[in-house]
Amino acid sequence: MPSEDRTQKNAQMALIGRIGAHVSHSRHDSRELTANARAAFQSKFEAEVDPDSILEPEERARRADQARRAYYADLAYKSAIARQKRASPRRARPASDQGSR
Question: Is residue 63 within 8 Å of residue 53, measured between CB atoms?
Fold first, then answer.
């Protein structure tokens, strides 16, 4: 399959998937649809902070919440660094080159 055909097919499949997601979310509560995934994600952090299950449930939940916040803060930091790296070559070009795209 030529590259152009594959690219077009991928775009069509993405659009079909997007349509399906919109239909699903129009018929169901989004929180219900993702409840199992969110619970599994939370349990990952609980296992990380209390692998032997020795903490009280409230303390385990508090620490898991902090671990989750740290995870997202680290993700945001890495994203900012990546954006900065992508922007650096553009900033380094002389002003005379910037308008000639």
Answer: no
